[in-house]
Amino acid sequence: MIGAAPAELVEKAAAKVMRVQAVSREEIWKSPPQILITNYSMLEHMLMRPKERGDIFESSKHFSMLILDEAHTYTGSTGTEVAMLLRRFKLAMGIRASGQIQAIATSASLGDPREEGIKQKVCSFASNLFDEPFNEKHLIWGTRVSPDKRFGPPYIVESLSEDELYERYEALDIGSIFRSVESAKEGLKDLVPSVQLENAQQESGDDVHVFLWHVLAGHPHIRRLMKVLGSGPRPWSQVATSAELWTLPRSLDGEVDPQDVRRRLGRRVRATT
Length: 273
Fold this sequence. Notes:
Layout: H1 6-20, H2 25-30, H3 40-48, H4 50-58, E1 65-68, H5 76-92, E2 102-105, H6 118-130, H7 147-151, H8 162-171, H9 181-188, H10 194-204, H11 208-216, H12 220-229, H13 236-240, H14 258-272
Parallel strand pairs: 1-2
Helix pairs in contact: 3-5, 8-14, 10-11
């Protein structure tokens, strides 16, 4: 598929989806899927409509797993409504006692496992939400891994002044680096050492996205950007003036010259329009 036109890629992707996914209500009614992905508003409507409640839910004999993503958002009145909805849903599926299904709640924002009492709180929250038993042995806590630990240390790039760096990024044709590996190599040659470009090409299998992964995962500028955005999304104006990302002229009180901010933000706008 390398070099294929966008329309052809869309057609190929649609054909692949059609082989494994029901895309209409009629298809779902005729042959209820093994996996149903929906949201709580749509689930509410489906439970209210006799056709879907009967043909999809009440007739199902193999319901065994219920997964709820971003579980931390279901608090307050919304949490109460969703908890009641899940109880109605289980009744429609013939589940009249707890412990008959596997309930899974996923979230990246449920707290630090080292915090006192947090595990008990999470178990209580999940039990109230699903009306299913939860205890600490059911909890799986993830750990945040630094980019350096995950990807290895960054490689070294040419030392440039901030103005030179801005100029090179301004000249970068973003569209060109997605066309092909060769096009990406040409577009990034002023920002990435040649040895890194050659190594990435060898690892890419002529796939431009794999190539870009190998090029950018170890780039020190990308690592700096990861650090800036590690605590969450930030406005471009903050990123553009972040002391962690750029070394900009600052006054004695640590503020960046407003004219310099406007000049640099203006460059960014010109570079992306």
